[in-house]
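Long-time lurker. I teach an intro course on protein structure, and each term I like to show students one example going from raw sequence to a predicted 3D structure in C-alpha cell notation. This year I'd like something fresh instead of my usual example. Would anyone be willing to generate the C-alpha cells for the chain below so I can use it in lecture? Attribution to the forum is fine with me.
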Amino acid sequence: MALANLRTENHGTSLLACLDGELDLSNVPTITRELAASVPNTALRLVLDLSEVAYMDSAGLGMLYTLGRQLRDRQQALTLVVPREAMIRRVLEVASVGSIATIYDDQEAALAV
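-- Reply from a regular --
Happy to contribute to a lecture. Here you go:
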C-alpha cells in the first residue's frame, strides 16, 4: 500500500479532503501541513474522507485531534467520512475521535449537512 495521497475540492462552505493509502508517522507531518494550509478562513468545516485509508497509526490519530483543535480555534468544524466496515472505524471509536469530529458513513451524508 502506498503512503497517503491527498485531494481537495470545495463544496460550498465546506472543503472536502480525500485521503487514501496509509497514514503513519512517516507522512503525518506533511499531510497535516497540507490540510491546514488548504482550509480557507471562509470554510465552515473540513470534511475529511478517510474511506480509502487502509492503515492509521497513533500519529494519524494525533493528527485528527490536532486538526480538530486547530479548526475549533478558528470557529470551524471537522467532519470525518469513515464507512462502518472500514478497518480504521473501530480504532477511531476506541480513541473517542467522535468527541472532536462528527463521523459519517459516506461522503454524501457528510456533505448534505
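Some talking points for your students: The chain has a mean pLDDT of 94. Strands lie at 5-11, 14-23, 45-56, 77-81, 102-104.
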